[in-house]
Amino acid sequence: MKEQILVVLPHPDDEAFGAAGVISLYTKRGVPVTYACATLGEMGRNMGVPPFANRETLPQIRKIELEEACKAMGIQDLRLLGYRDKTLEFEKPEDVADTIHAILVELEPSLVITHYPGYAVHPDHDACGAATILAVSRLPKEKRPTVYGMAFSKDCREKLGEPDVTINIEEVATQKIEALAAHKSQTTQMMSGIQEKLKAGDPDTKRWFSQEVFWTYHFND
Fold this sequence. Notes:
Layout: E1 5-9, H1 14-18, H2 20-28, E2 33-37, H3 58-73, E3 77-80, H4 93-107, E4 111-115, H5 123-137, E5 146-150, H6 156-160, E6 165-168, H7 173-182, H8 184-200, H9 203-208, E7 211-216
Parallel strand pairs: 1-2, 1-4, 2-3, 4-5
Antiparallel strand pairs: 5-7, 6-7
Helix pairs in contact: 3-7, 4-5, 7-8
């Protein structure tokens, strides 16, 4: 089976926080990565530090930032699904799954990365993950890609166990930093703190840029 990665997440910057390293590892090897981003994060509270966006300009700014982050990670195929931020949980899961299913049929990915539904904190995260799982479940068993779920709720390890996928991303840590920094309306203040912690050798920060973890989703049928 040819390698093709599909990332399905709801907001610009979700990919940078949770999967930029893995994405960069794949693109570095020449594996095509498609990113289907459900919204433009237009309801985000951050407007830059100091503020340079407002509620009217934020969607276009975040779109440009997302495109810059994709360049940092080597993603050449960005799909904007056009849903509205903070309303994904109110969409019919079947309808969102239809959109994702069409991309699955087109690309026949070998791996899908999304949020693990129920363990991703934000309602949009959980809704996007659930719709993605539903879309994959519609494929014949023999054609289903592996699904890596990103989980970070406080009880995720208690309920799901320890992550079964741990990937060393040290060789692409710079790309992860660049992807995060590209989302400057959301991350400027955070990035200054991260650089300081990295210089100080903070173990938790170093770990964030040395490995990414996922839970493989197992279908019941």
